[in-house]
Write a structure and sequence with these properties.
The chain is mainly alpha-helical. It contains 13 helices and five strands.
């Protein structure tokens, strides 16, 4: 502040003698404003604590799924998820592993929550999946947006997995999984009896969980006929064949997970999907909450 006083003193000596009061006032105010702009703005206590008090985003999604599976209260968790800032969400979901764990848990949890409250919505499945049903970080979302726009990386719903949807929202684009992972199809549960069972996904164990989920589902829903060399498999392979790298990719996946022998070129038959409502399909042997 010494330099400031010297500057003001010099201005006073020069200009007051010549009655240049308006110019004096302008000079003083301009210099004061300049120094104020250079001074750092102290952070408020709430701002300095913002990072430390940010909610654990992954835990919110995980707890939501656990609570609904055990018929516990979920309203408070839903409110916290809705109230998240996009900045907090972006920080928590900076990798594909984090995005997959979070959004799979969110999808499965809200399927259970909404269909438990209003099972009649399932009668019009097209509308059920396409209408906005819940809010995350201030954004109303549909199940289609989460599944196709985010978890499947922006793929068009009715393209067999071969085309991107150019009309996805900025929210979907910002939080989408960057590298496609076909195993998500054996983790998402849409409420139907033919859906894969629900698991409770965690970032640190996601890779192992997705492997187990894929192996379990394929071995329990596929049928191999040695005599006819035909594999009967889930319709998911047909609906999203591009996600599996086509029919050739489907056959390789069946070999990788031990559904068919390595030395065969199997014929593929897609089984009908059972759309009967089943909201209790979330317990694997050995699952721990």
């Amino acid at each position: 502040m010494k330099s400031t006083r010297q500057f003001v003193s010099a201005i006073l000596k020069t200009f007051t003698q010549k009655m240049y009061l308006p110019l004096l006032l302008f000079s003083f105010l301009s210099f004061t404003f300049f120094e104020a702009c250079q001074a750092p703005t102290p952070k408020s206590s709430s701002e300095s604590m913002k990072i430390a008090t940010s909610p654990h985003v992954q835990q919110l999604a995980y707890n939501l799924l656990v609570n609904v599976s055990q018929d516990r209260e979920t309203k408070s968790l839903q409110k916290q998820l809705a109230a998240l800032s996009t900045e907090t969400l972006a920080t928590a979901l900076s990798t594909d592993v984090q995005r997959k764990a979070f959004w799979i848990n969110i999808y499965n949890a809200y399927i259970l929550i909404i269909l438990t409250e209003k099972p009649e919505l399932y009668k019009n499945r097209g509308n059920f999946f396409s209408a906005q049903r819940f809010t995350i970080a201030g954004h109303a979302l549909s199940f289609d947006q989460v599944e196709h726009g985010i978890i499947r990386g922006g793929r068009a719903k009715y393209s067999f997995g071969y085309a991107q949807d150019p009309f996805r929202s900025s929210f979907e684009k910002n939080f989408r999984v960057r590298n496609r992972d076909f195993r998500i199809h054996f983790a998402l549960n849409c409420g139907a009896r033919s859906c894969p069972p629900v698991r409770f996904y965690k970032v640190e164990t996601l890779e192992n969980q997705l492997e187990k989920a894929t192996s379990y589902y394929l071995k329990n829903t596929s049928y191999w006929n040695t005599k006819t060399q035909e594999a009967q498999v889930t319709s998911l392979f047909s609906w999203f064949r591009g996600d599996f790298e086509g029919l050739k990719g489907v056959k390789q996946i069946l070999k990788t997970y031990g559904v068919v022998p390595q030395n065969v070129s199997p014929k593929i038959d897609f089984l009908p999907y059972d759309w009967s409502l089943d909201l209790k399909n979330f317990q694997y042997p050995g699952d721990e909450f």
